[in-house]
Amino acid sequence: MSDFDAIDSLLASLTPHTPLPEAPVRRDLRERAGLSKAQVARALGVSPSTVTGWEAGRDPVGEVRAKYAYLLDGLADKLTHPVPSPANEAPSAPSATPEAPPPEPAPDAGPTSDAETSVRTPGAHPDDGDALAEPQPCVLCGRPAHHQVAGFPQHLDPTQCAPAEPQASRTTTPAPTPPAARRARATSPTGRATPHTGTPSRPRSSPDPIAAAVTDALATHEGDVEAATAALVKRAIPDAMALLDSCRKGGRYAIVAHPWIPDILRKQSARGADQIWEARPKWFRPELPPGVHEVTALDINGAYLSALKTHLPIGQLEHTIGTTHDRRRAGVHLITPPPWEHGAYLPNPIGNRDEPGPLWVTEPTLRLLLRLSGPKLGLCEPPEIHESFTSGATENLLEKFRVILKDARDRAIAQEDEVTLEYVKAMYSKFVSTMGESNYNRELYRPDWMHLIRSQAFANLWTKALKAHDAGLTVVRAMGTDELHVIGDWPKVFPEGRGVSEVKVKDVYPIGSEPTDPAAAGPIDEN
Amino acid sequence: MPERTIDFGKYGAQGIKGFEAVARQLDALADFIASPVTTRRGLLARLHYLTRTSRARAAAREAGLTVTDRTLKAWLAGTRNPTKRNLTRIDTAYRAVRRQNVARYLLARLNREGRGTRVEIHPLNQSGVRPPHQRVVEFRTLNIRRWGAIVEAWAAGDDQALDDAWIEQIVDLGSQWGQYEYVTNVGFAA
């Protein structure tokens, strides 16, 4: 590297902050172009999580900022004008390289060092897309192309290969701003511009099994929506298991479906329950503020679907005795819960248990208690752990499965496709309810997972209650898996909608009485 | 390492023989009557199962319930109650007959027209073994395509034959199959 190159790159890094679009726009641009974070990250030479950060509001600095700005600029350009014309690219005054820049490679070409290109003239590298003296027919689309790769005339920019007007005078286009970005882009590893790897295609999606099943069912029942829904709901469990299997292909962990199960997780009798306390909330606010209030009953959408993301034990549960909690493991724990002093305005995180003494709780409940007892919240004492049955855990075991179902659900909502919606709902809810000792699903025998996922749903509801309380709402009721009754301006806290991160209004009802009649105060029956 | 364990549990390992775990799982899949035979409900359910048809009666007799029809009638009517020893006999006979009846269907489901069933083998429990003597024994899975011998031996209640049939299958695990002679659990669906 010559001294001038070093100075050059230093000067380039001193350019004033290139303006970037807003964070949501960045993500939107990338998604509309069908690029994954990993692709973008590779092109910019950063990690995908950095790109995530930029799309969440963080701002890149320095040279990479210029590169990013150039990428977004290019994407916006491409998306607004499907066929980019050279006129769009404004000529820039200060170019560090006196000679014309090398021909453009495919957009996802990786960057190399600046110095390498600044001394390289077009055609210096035999494989790097030679410029042709006169246009020859492209081997891919047959229209005149100005470059050749390994002796084959072709368009280097895939958009030019599309059935559109052939571009002229690409090689003479002056470098647009910013120069650093242009130079970084212009370098291409050899052979990257070949037609197969250079195409920025959408990530190849395998044929969607959910959509296929719905189409099949509708075709079999000749468009009879009710019959098709009934048929789909009937096959939801085997379909969910097949989907789970396909999701785990190439996964890091195998799904252990039939481990040894400790006695506490076995049902005492055919109809009985096991010893696990799932901490299902069933809480009414004992005392209401005086006056009449309008209570909104909110319904958390897809509570069990969201709860599939939880720390699940992978293998067979192993017994340990001791007071410590290992964050890398998950399972069930025998704890003595701490006393709860906030029952007047917040539900007890372990639900309303009347019986005192130690109880078997699951990982999500324990983690919730540990979080609440931490220094940040300090709402209770830490729970005392006596013994545990745990195994190495991961949060990602069902993640792919969850995301596929969530996407199918979102699509169904957007298209108002009730059949798919019902089918997806049956898939995840029946998957959770039959993954234990059920005879309806013998493929999976994990009562521990069933309890953990349910508890996660309850813990999620509890967290929402805390969020409502912290935002100044009055929490009146927390019930079951997905019911939260609040007084106050809830749309400020929870967005309304049908997505999994949104809430749905189930009911609005008045509660309480005028201060003159204190006898009638208290929770009244709501429809 | 010997292929068969000579003195299992010498260093504190815990587990059961593989074939016992298989029989346990097959029993779970056979869905026996849940109520115990000591309850009136459980007793009647078993007696009804064993006396519904003449074939069932013959099978029950073969399985060791050698009582007269008069006694059976009295038990069913509730005028007499079986002795403790007869209760055990009834239960044993019920299980044997049920296994024989279920075997055909279970076999078809396990073979799945030649595709077989994936079996999870959970290794023995070494938590009681001193660390220097502990060995790495991994969780293994195996697809078993031919269940005929296993199910037949299980239905006949022949432990030795079941053990042989099971070992015949798990040698496919490779040279380490001896580590899986004793297991904590063998899991499969049907």
Automatic annotation (TrEMBL), chain A:
Residues 99-108 have a biased composition (Pro residues). Coiled coil: none annotated. This is XRE family transcriptional regulator. GO terms for molecular function: DNA binding. The lineage of its organism: Bacteria, Bacillati, Actinomycetota, Actinomycetes, Kitasatosporales. SMART domains: HTH_XRE (SM00530). It comes from Streptomyces triticirhizae. Residues 86-98, 186-195 have a biased composition (Low complexity). SUPFAM superfamilies: lambda repressor-like DNA-binding domains (SSF47413). Residues 27-79 form the HTH cro/C1-type domain. Residues 1-31, 78-131, 150-209 are annotated as: Disordered.
From TrEMBL, chain B:
It comes from the Bacteria. This is Transcriptional regulator. It comes from Streptomyces triticirhizae.
